[in-house]
């Protein structure tokens, strides 16, 4: 099975390294000629300093070449997914696309799988998500992820072909649950980062994680997900990692909000756009998501951290 990866960011590159370590031929595509040349000619990446790459990992700026593989992993920011798919001229008939991006499209309100199916209706779509930092995967540390695909035979093929001795994949047919767990946990990670950055303490963070998880499950269930999927790696597992570690860009972004500091503008923070998209879905479907709504307002500067906390703490008392 030929494999390519679209996206030379840290996560896409890390996946390429992990898969190529087993002597599999893997091609990675990027639009940045410098990043591509570093991978192709020097077997290194500016996004993963110090990590040596296998010789079976090649790099290209030819998007059509990358899209011609039997299995294509897409690891670009969720807000760039539509643009990248539209740039691929091939219909990709019979291709298995594995989406590694976590988010909700802000413009359309669609999840990444539905968006992909609209643009490339002839492909089989899967989602790869769960608690994982790029550096851990690139350095060969044990990692477990969820692989979601509505077509069970394809799920089993992908599970076998994409698993490695230290990258363990668990399958599910619940695409909606897997993609929304991975997307919505970033919103809660921003909230938790802001909580810690503002000095509100670990008890407040635990409360935000718990009530945030309830919001994730509420919205995902309303949109067709199975609640048990959110309790797995793609929901609770990913939430735990991103809300408790400064290795998470979304958590670090929240920290900067809580501290009143500027955040590095070149770093992609998926949760900021996802918070706004989820807030729109909350209004559209009449689903109460107070933490998500407050986080969306934080990211746009419409609320301060103190105002957000006051807003949440002044809500009517209720049963859990």
From TrEMBL:
InterPro entries: 6-PGluconate_DH-like_C_sf, 6PGD_dom2, G3P_DH_NAD-dep, G3P_DH_NAD-dep_C, G3P_DH_NAD-dep_N, NAD(P)-bd_dom_sf. GO terms for molecular function: glycerol-3-phosphate dehydrogenase [NAD(P)+] activity; NAD binding. The keyword Aminoacyl-tRNA synthetase does not apply. It is found in: Cytoplasm. Its EC number is 1.1.1.94. Keywords: Cytoplasm, Lipid biosynthesis, Lipid metabolism, NAD, NADP, Nucleotide-binding, Oxidoreductase, Phospholipid biosynthesis, Phospholipid metabolism. NADPH binds at residues 11, 31, 102, 134, 249, 270. Sn-glycerol 3-phosphate binds at residues 102, 130, 132, 185, 238, 248-250. Substrate binds at residues 102, 249-250. Pathway: Membrane lipid metabolism; glycerophospholipid metabolism. One of its GO terms (biological process) is phospholipid biosynthetic process. Residues 174-309 form the Glycerol-3-phosphate dehydrogenase NAD-dependent C-terminal domain. It is an enzyme of class 1 (oxidoreductase). GO terms for cellular component: cytosol. Residues 3-152 form the Glycerol-3-phosphate dehydrogenase NAD-dependent N-terminal domain. The active site is at residue 185. SUPFAM superfamilies: 6-phosphogluconate dehydrogenase C-terminal domain-like, NAD(P)-binding Rossmann-fold domains. It catalyses: sn-glycerol 3-phosphate + NADP(+) = dihydroxyacetone phosphate + NADPH + H(+); sn-glycerol 3-phosphate + NAD(+) = dihydroxyacetone phosphate + NADH + H(+). The keyword Cell membrane does not apply. PROSITE patterns: NAD_G3PDH (PS00957). NAD(+) binds at residues 7-12, 134, 249. PANTHER family: GLYCEROL-3-PHOSPHATE DEHYDROGENASE (PTHR11728), GLYCEROL-3-PHOSPHATE DEHYDROGENASE [NAD(+)] 2, CHLOROPLASTIC (PTHR11728:SF1). Belongs to the NAD-dependent glycerol-3-phosphate dehydrogenase family. HAMAP family: NAD_Glyc3P_dehydrog (MF_00394). Catalyzes the reduction of the glycolytic intermediate dihydroxyacetone phosphate (DHAP) to sn-glycerol 3-phosphate (G3P), the key precursor for phospholipid synthesis. This is Glycerol-3-phosphate dehydrogenase [NAD(P)+]. It comes from Sagittula marina. The lineage of its organism: Bacteria, Pseudomonadati, Pseudomonadota, Alphaproteobacteria, Rhodobacterales.
């Amino acid at each position: 099975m030929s494999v390519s990866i679209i996206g030379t960011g840290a996560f896409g590159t890390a996946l390429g390294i992990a898969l190529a370590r087993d002597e599999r031929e893997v091609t990675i595509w990027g639009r940045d000629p410098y990043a591509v040349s570093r991978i192709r000619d020097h077997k290194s990446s500016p996004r993963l300093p110090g990590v040596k790459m296998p010789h079976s990992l090649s790099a290209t700026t030819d998007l059509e070449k990358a899209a011609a593989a039997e299995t294509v992993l897409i690891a670009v920011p969720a807000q760039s997914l539509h643009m990248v798919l539209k740039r691929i001229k091939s219909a990709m008939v019979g291709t298995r696309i594995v989406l590694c991006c976590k988010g909700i499209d802000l413009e359309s309100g669609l999840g990444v799988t539905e968006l992909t199916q609209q643009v490339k209706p002839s492909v089989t779509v899967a989602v790869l998500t769960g608690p994982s930092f790029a550096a851990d995967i690139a350095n060969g540390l044990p990692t477990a992820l969820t692989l979601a695909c509505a077509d069970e035979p394809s799920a089993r093929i992908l599970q076998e072909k994409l698993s490695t001795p230290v990258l363990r994949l668990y399958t599910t047919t619940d695409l909606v649950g897997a993609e929304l767990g991975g997307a919505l946990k970033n919103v809660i990670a921003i909230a938790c980062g802001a909580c810690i950055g503002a000095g509100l303490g670990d008890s407040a963070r635990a409360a935000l994680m718990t009530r945030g998880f309830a919001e994730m499950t509420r919205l995902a269930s309303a949109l067709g997900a199975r609640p048990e999927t959110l309790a797995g790696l793609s929901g609770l597992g990913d939430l735990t990692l991103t809300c408790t570690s400064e290795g998470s860009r979304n958590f670090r972004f929240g920290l900067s909000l809580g501290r009143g500091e500027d955040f590095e503008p070149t770093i992609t923070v998926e949760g900021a756009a996802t918070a706004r998209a989820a807030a729109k879905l909350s209004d559209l479907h009449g689903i109460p998501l107070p933490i998500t709504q407050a986080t969306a307002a934080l990211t746009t500067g419409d609320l301060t951290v103190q105002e957000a906390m006051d807003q949440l703490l002044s809500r009517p008392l209720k049963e859990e």
